Amino acid sequence: MVREHGSVGAESAAFAQTLGTLKRQGSNILLVGTSTSGAHEAVCHRLRGEVESGAEPGTDTRYRLFVTDTVDGCSIRENETETSRTIEYADMDLAPESNAPRADNRTPLSTLGIEIIETIDAFDEDADGLEAAELRVCIDSLVRLLHEYDTERVFRLLHMTTSRVEHARGMGHYHLPLERDHDAVNLLEPMFDAIVELRARGEEYEQQWYLCDRDTTTEWIPI
Q1: pTM for this predicted structure
Q2: 8 found inside a domain
Q3: What is the pLDDT of residues 104-152, one digit of tens each?
Q4: Which domain, by its residues, includes 206?
């Protein structure tokens, strides 16, 4: 169906308004799509709110938290600073036999969740209260956690993390390189404000947003 230009313009305006609202109020976005590591990385750079190289010193006031399970993930490492932290759980023992609570009643997964929350709390204290969209959280990726833990436990971890990000009016994005209609995506979808499907079209990357609150899907948009 061919759409009239006015209709397309109205949709674009509504989409931009929704994204502005998510940025002001805090949001959590699930990135899906297989065989598109380049697309995941491109979107990740933007959602992290990276400034252009050569920008004036002090113009980037964002606080960034990277949570990753692999050295070669798309979460590009930065030097540890007061405003940038990386939590690597590649060396955590996530095997099923290690999931029994320890003496302090913590499992490796709950320990990971607590470390995420404590890091955000430290950012909030350092900033004397985080401003809207000042906090950026990237989790790359959820696949290993879903392989090692049952969905209910991962759901609890994500509920804890997404709630804290939203409370801080931050922007969190979570990489899940699976097909859009995968069961895991459907189960986790209710916790997110948007699902973004990524794909490669030749040498170009595209994204399609599903805005959960509006039950609206955009056209495919170049990244």
Answers
A1: 0.86
A2: no
A3: 556 788 899 999 999 999 999 999 999 999 999 999 989 989 998 888 9
A4: 26-50+60-222
